[in-house]
Every structure is written in C-alpha cells, then in structure tokens.
Request: fold
Amino acid sequence: EVQLLDSGGGLVQPGGSLRLSCAASGFTFSSYIMTWVRQAPGRGLEWVSAITDNAGSTYYADSVKGRFTISRDNSKNTLYLQLNSLRAEDTAVYYCARDKVLDYWGQGTLVTVSS
Amino acid sequence: QSVLTQPPSASGTPGQRVTISCSGSSSNIGSNFVNWYQQLPGTAPKLLIYNNNQRPPGVPDRLSGSKSGTSASLAISGLQSEDEADYYCATWDGSLNGRVFGGGTKLTVL
Reply:
C-alpha cells in the first residue's frame, strides 16, 4: 500500500526556518517525481515545488523561489522541503504528493508563520 | 488569481448530472494533460481523473473528464450526497515551468 507521511510543521516566527519531511513507503520511491503542494487556510491548492526521480532537476513556484529548497534521499525513501525566510503568507498545510499526476498524497503538515 | 479558471460553486440534486469547467491557455491546458482532484473537508485531495479522461482504480465511471482546446471539464452523473466536496483542475504550464491549479469549485448537493 502506497503511503506518504508528512511531518515537520509547526509555529515559526517571520524570517524563521523549518524543514518538512515526507516519508514514503509501499512503492519504489526512487522511480518517481515527487511534489509539494500547499493550501492556505480557507484557500485553494497551490503547487510549491517538484523534484525528478534522481534529483537531477528541481522546479519552484515563483512565490517560493530562492527561499525554499526541495531535496530527496532515495536511500531513506524521504522527500524534504527546506523553508527559509518564512513569511506570514507561507502559512498553510503542506502536502507531499507522488508523480506528475499527484496520484497519492500525504496527510499534510501545518506550517504557521506568526510572531 | 489562479492561472486556471473554475467557477467558484456548482450545485445539483441527487441523480442529476453536473459539469465543472476549467479554462486555461495555450501554455497550460492547450498543450498538456489535465488532472482533476476531489477534496473532502479536512482531508487531503484525491486524484479523480488524470491525462484528461483516465480514471484511477476505484473511481466510479459516473465521473468523466474531457478536454477541448484550452478548456477542460469534469462531469459527474448520478449525483450523490457524498459527491459534495471541493474540486480542482490542474496541469503543467510551460511558460511558468510549473504546475498550476484552478481556484477550486465547491459542489453542493441540494
């Protein structure tokens, strides 16, 4: 059974940092593109970042470019998102999802940016 | 302001057929596959349709997707109360070099 487990969220002050993790199981993690999507409270879905199967290429939304870094450790079946220079508008539930079609999603982890 | 345009709301009565539209441009829908997701309150989104009109295992055939030019649509026939949810379209945008979502459509079953 495919499972994605998001973790690492929490309360952080503006300008602070967090690292989110997504632990994958039930499939060959190293064969899939992986993606982060976020959802601000009461708002729609926003694509954040994606990384190819071998980490050879990464992609970012303009809203996070230069502040967030996506990475993966295929030996640990884990996807990461490093969030730096956080702003209030980054407050959201962050989901990891599998493949280009986002066929499986994690349960999400809440990031709250507030002083 | 989302790159893909969806109506904010839609509604129907049990048994009816409803359609949700998703409008884009040549750089996104016009040149890439469209996927549709359902999100129930407090839960993660679920893939309903991929590659314009393909259903993953377990998604009933009363749900269907289509695409024409720079627009796509999701049709739900035989509407049921459990279909009440938010629905999102998504695709890749070659100009933005990123994936884009519609703003979402809240479906109400009256």
